[in-house]
Amino acid sequence: MKAAGKQWITLGFTLLMLVKAWVIPLVYLDYELRKEYIIANLCVNRDNPIVVCEGKCYLAEKIVDAKKQDERRAEQSFMANLLFQAMDTGRPFIFKSPEHFEGWVMVTFDYISPFLSRTVTADIFHPPLA
Questions:
Q1: Distances (CA, A) of 90 to 66, 76, 86, 113
Q2: What superkingdom does the record give (predicted)?
Q3: Which tens digits make up the pLDDT trace of 28-86?
Q4: Domain interval for residue 37
Q5: Does a structural domain hold residue 106?
Q6: Which helix (H) or strand (E) holds 92?
Q7: Highest mean pLDDT among 41-45, 56-60, 112-116, 125-129
Q8: Residue 98 lies in a domain
Q9: Looking at the 3D structure of the chain, how many domains does it have?
């Protein structure tokens, strides 16, 4: 039962994303399906018989409106994400001091510097004395 509910939720979110992605193509589809009605009733130039726009003025207005609405939606989601991150009301972070401290552990390294002269050749090979 739980798996079926998750599948329905996933399907719902997928359809929601598809509707958002297909807004402008749906405007074109609406224009093509209702072209005669748009030309007769909704066209801006329907009273001017010389101009033959065939309702493309209405289509252009709807596309601009859809793009503006998409931009507003993107801006609102960006601002919401920004505010959510800045005003995170989750559990506050509290620095906790440890209950006991361990002593410092002294680490020793067995390392011989190459600049120290500990070889016999350093006594033989040296720059000339002044």
A1: 36, 22, 11, 53
A2: Bacteria
A3: 888 889 888 888 888 877 777 677 778 888 888 888 998 898 888 888 888 877 777 76
A4: 9-86
A5: no
A6: none
A7: 56-60
A8: no
A9: 1
